[in-house]
Design brief:
The protein has about 200 residues and is α/β, with parallel strands linked by helices. Helices cover about 40% and strands about 15% of the residues. It is built from seven helices and six strands. Strands 3-2-1-4-5-6 form a six-stranded parallel sheet, with helices on both faces. Helix 1 links the parallel strand 1 and strand 2. It starts with 6 loop residues before the first strand and ends in a 13-residue tail after the last helix.
Length: about 200
């Protein structure tokens, strides 16, 4: 196996759209990035409802979704504050929260660090490292928008799960790949998940 290219954290919350987080993680692993994965309890519930997976054995789910992860995937319990990603001294290149619920968004915007996912996001902001948040909620009220603005002001990037249609998607996978591809574009990570305009 070739040497890892770098380290990223992926957080998956209870917002609808677990497929986005799964696909992003799969793509990072396929490109030989080390991935630290954190899934909230509500995120596991969405795995059960949207992906139709039996989450009673979570390790089996991870093995099923990421079968070729080898030593690149590191899953952390939501309250494992001893995880390396909880420290700013750990060389984490950046973090994706995909999809991001409004509850998690609020915790990050207010610096709550109420769990490992929120703490790691706080580390990204204080260390001035990339934090990309993919909100999946509609409609949005003023508090949602103000929380997004707070995070943007301190260096986070909001990448809404808004698929484009100029590439003429034919399947659900096409739409998922477009959103994930736009997220990777925002992190300056090369990919071939969709056909670009003009290609």
């Amino acid at each position: 196996m070739s040497e890892e290219k770098g380290i990223y954290t992926v957080g998956i919350t209870g917002a609808s759209g677990a497929q986005y987080g799964v696909r992003l993680t799969q793509e990072l692993l396929s490109q030989k990035y080390k991935v630290h994965l954190v899934i909230t309890e509500a995120g596991w519930q969405v795995f059960r409802e949207e992906l139709q997976l039996d989450t009673s054995d979570r390790q089996s789910v991870l093995n099923q979704l990421f079968p070729q992860s080898n030593d690149l995937l590191h899953y952390h319990d939501l309250h494992d504050y001893a995880a390396p990603i909880a420290s700013g001294s750990y060389q984490n290149k950046g973090m994706f929260i995909i999809p991001c619920s409004m509850g998690t968004l609020s915790g990050i915007a207010h610096g709550a660090s109420g769990n490992l996912l929120e703490r790691t996001a706080d580390v990204m902001l204080k260390e001035r490292r990339p934090l990309l948040i993919v909100p999946r909620e509609t409609p949005l009220h003023q508090i949602h928008l103000e929380n997004m603005l707070k995070i943007t002001k301190v260096g986070g990037l909001i990448v809404p799960a808004m698929p484009g249609y100029y590439h003429l998607p034919k399947t659900l996978d096409d739409i998922i790949n477009f959103v994930v591809g736009k997220v990777l574009d925002s992190a300056h990570i090369k990919h071939q998940l969709f056909t670009r305009w003009g290609e």
